[in-house]
Each structure stands twice: as C-alpha cells, then as structure tokens.
Amino acid sequence: MAAVLDARRKRLYYRSAYTGTKETDVFLGAFAERHLAELDDQQLDDYEKLLEIADPRLYKWITAQETPPAEYDTPVLRMIQAFDLTG
C-alpha cells in the first residue's frame, strides 16, 4: 500500500512541475515538493482533481483572480492559495 501511495505522490509531483505554463509549474512544483508527503488520501484526491483543470483557469483560482466553483474550493486549494514560495 505504501508503494502505491509513493508512486501516486511521485506522479502528482511530476504533474505539478509540468502543468503547461512556467508560473504554474514553479508554484505547484514547489508546493508539491513541500506538502505532498503530508497530504492524506482525500487531500490527494482533491489535489489530483485540481490538476485536471486547464492551466490558465487553475492559475486564476490559485492567485484568487477568479472564484472557483464550490466543488473545487477545498482545503487543499486554500492551502495552495496560502502557500508562500519564499518560505
């Protein structure tokens, strides 16, 4: 079971670092590197669901330029929005 979870986290890390635009790649790549290990199964599901969103739209949600639909407005999205790249 742990090996499956590790493989999932590795896949999510890769997807985070290669989303399509440089800004989102840098931001989500750093977030994933610092926080993926601590996310539980439900949070990983929510994170994976966010990665399915088109990159420009996701970036607008992360930077609070647009309000996400309720189904995507999860604690994980709020963690990403509060994430500090410099810290």
From TrEMBL:
InterPro entries: SDH (IPR005631), SDH_sf (IPR036714). Keywords: Chaperone. Pfam families: Sdh5 (PF03937). GO terms for biological process: tricarboxylic acid cycle. Belongs to the SdhE FAD assembly factor family. This is FAD assembly factor SdhE. The lineage of its organism: Bacteria, Pseudomonadati, Pseudomonadota, Alphaproteobacteria, Rhodospirillales.
